[in-house]
UniProtKB/TrEMBL annotation:
Subcellular localization, as worded in the UniProt entry: Membrane
Protein name: BK channel
Topology versus the membrane: Multi-pass membrane protein
Transmembrane segments: 39-58, 70-88, 124-143, 179-202, 243-268
Entry-linked PROSITE patterns: RCK_C (PS51202), RCK_N (PS51201)
Entry GO MF terms: monoatomic cation transmembrane transporter activity; monoatomic ion channel activity
Domain RCK N-terminal residue range list: 287-405
A Pfam family reported for this protein in Swiss-Prot or TrEMBL: Ion_trans
Species, as recorded: Arcobacter caeni
Cellular component annotations (GO), alphabetically ordered: membrane
Keyword Cell membrane on entry: no
Amino acid sequence: MTKYIIALAYRLETSIKYKNFKEFTYNILENNAYSKKKYFDTSMIFLVLSTIGILIFEVNHKNLRILNDYELFAVIIFSIEYLGRFWISSDIHKIILDDYEKYQLLNKKYKISKSIKKIISNKINFVLSPMAIVDLLAILPYYRPLRLLRILLIFRLFKILRYANSLKEFLQVFKERKFELFTLGLLYITVVFFSSTVIFLYEGPEGVNPNIVDFFDAVYWSIITISTVGYGDVTPITVEGKLVTLVLIVSSFLVIAFGTSIITTGLSDRMEIIKENRVQSETSKMKDFVIVCGFGMMARYFCEELLSIGKKFIIIDNNKEAVNSAKNLNYLAIQLDATNMQTLEMMGINKGANSVVALTNNDAVNLSIVLSARALNENIKIISRVNNSNSKKKFEIAGVNESILFNDVTAFVASEYLGQPVAFEAIDGILLNKDFKVVIDEVEILNNSRILGKNINLVDFRNYNLTLLGIVNLKNMNDFIFNPTNIDYIVQKDDILIIIGFKTSISQLKSDLINLDFRI
């Protein structure tokens, strides 16, 4: 028997279908980063609320068959979900294989009973976990022998905690502050027990206070008073009872203030994590976006340009002030260490990101970002700011695609302005003036382009009121060919035409170049 179980365990370990199905089950039930989980969560929340609505409806209405059928459908879904969570709570075959291989290594006879004990222990831990108990209580009342327990259906409301991440984060506050809350609980119990005992001693004797008959009435009065509800159905009559009430009221202020400060502090600390989770969630939905590392003055202008052309981006900076500054501009930003590979992976370097731009003012930090990004993704485009020109070679070795020599560029721009101020102002106005209708744009030559493999002079740019400045040849190390109309240039795939003109004219040219009816 043991031999067959081990063989089955190895078969499951090597089965790709089994692994894929279990991974899918885990993702849909537990992995908040999984894109399709939100649809499952929304459906389950609707199912929970609708069944609670049916429970309320049936209080004063007769049972309808369609509602019973819907209840059956909901219970089947809840049961499948419960069994799915039970299944993924641990890997039975891995426990068996780990123990078996360990015994083989030690040349000892494998005893499957020890593995079974581990398996049962893991499954019991799952069954006894709070949320698993809630799941079970949401299912059990449906079955006939337990129909009297239908009131337990109200526990289905607690299932919503599984599907609402914000509520889960709120509950995490109680878990993190359990010591403080335990202390508060002891204080609360002490105050309640003390005040209940005293009030019962003075008000409890027969004939003194008709509203306090037993100790439970005293506890009830104490809790109602300390919670500042004060129904007024139980009130002290004796002087001693009134004095206890005054002491209890003052004590209640202290207890409430203490409890409020604990929860407020916990929520404040947790809010940062909630914000990080929101940013991660937003990032997971984005496609073809840029990861901007660092948010200084250069990054600020860079992000403005990305925004103007409709390019999506996420900002990563370890400085809290820089992140807050980015958020004030309504940019998607997160306070993390961009040199950390886990951070870049979390932000989607292997998913939706198409570029990484390192723009910090520290070459060592930028180099570390480049190394991390290139190690994670060999094909992603990496651009980095280089403050010291002597470091450019290091960045190239690290795998950067383009280097921005910050100081050299600044010096070059300054010298050009001094040499040709009028021409410089004209170019500056075209590039940076948002109200100026003339723009410099690029037209990429794709497989379906009508000009592919033909002479560039066949395109009448004057007819479009456009000027061709040059062509970037990607196959020749991004070589820039200035004014190619003079050399009868043959257009190649992935060439990029650099054109100056009106936006509408450039859009028309792009459309015509892929239009089958367009004649050259």
